[in-house]
Specification:
Layout: H1 13-18, E1 26-29, E2 35-38, H2 40-51, E3 58-70, E4 73-85, E5 91-103, H3 113-128, H4 133-136, H5 143-152, H6 156-175, H7 179-185, H8 196-209, H9 211-215
Antiparallel strand pairs: 1-2, 3-4, 4-5
Helix pairs in contact: 2-3, 6-8, 7-8
């Protein structure tokens, strides 16, 4: 019997699968010289895609908050441990810490400081295993790269819409019939608002009724 050999998993397998970021889930923060902030819920969504539901396949444990004076201000520091289940079912752990201003020097209290510190610690911990690493590597400073990611993360229905729009122009030109008329008969008076399925059906009606022209 021939012994089967399997290649060991790549050390970069997880990183490579989660490192790219949808630009629509980021925003430019004009503080501290400017930086790209990633939506925390988006990073949790990516973690759920990779590991399973939060609390079952991944999560963060033992959060601890502490307070410290920072001049006339006060900060809250969050310590937590990100965990996830590896392919062998064993729990993997990454510790992380983050701090946010709780009380400003002027006495203003940020009631969301605890949440902000916790979310930031979680995001930083996820980034250490590759999540949204392109942002942390500074690639979002390159507009060409951002545009590539914007295109790569386009919703499938939007891509299909563009394809249908191109087909619409071809069918109209070759058949001489505007598919918008068929859409109106179907109850869709605004072609731009019609769902993709309706547009596809309208195109098929025109192509079928004018098959000779379409195949000429």
């Amino acid at each position: 019997m021939t012994e089967q050999h399997t290649d060991p998993p790549s050390n970069m397998a997880l990183w490579d699968s989660v490192c790219q970021t949808d630009p629509a889930q980021t925003k430019l923060v004009k503080q501290r010289g400017g930086y790209t902030s990633i939506d925390g819920q988006y990073m949790m969504h990516k973690a759920t895609e990779a590991f399973g539901p939060c609390g079952l396949g991944w999560g963060f444990a033992d959060p601890v908050w502490e307070y410290r004076d920072a001049g006339k201000a006060q900060i809250v520091i969050c310590h937590l441990r990100l965990w996830w289940l590896g392919e062998d079912g064993k729990r993997q752990v990454v510790p992380e810490t983050s701090c946010k201003e709780l009380v400003t020097a002027g006495g203003h209290v940020d009631c969301d400081a605890f949440k902000k510190a916790t979310t930031d610690a979680m995001k930083k911990a996820l980034s250490r295993v590759g999540f949204c690493a392109d942002v942390f590597l500074g690639k979002f400073d390159d507009e060409e790269y951002v545009e590539e990611q914007r295109e790569a993360h386009r919703p499938p229905e939007e891509i299909e819409r563009d394809e249908l729009r191109a087909e619409w122009g071809r069918v109209h030109k070759v058949s001489g019939i505007d598919p918008a008329g068929v859409l109106k008969l179907m109850g869709h008076h605004d072609p731009k608002a019609a769902p993709n399925d309706a547009v596809r059906d309208a195109l098929e009606v025109v192509k079928t009724e004018h098959a000779e022209k379409m195949t000429a």
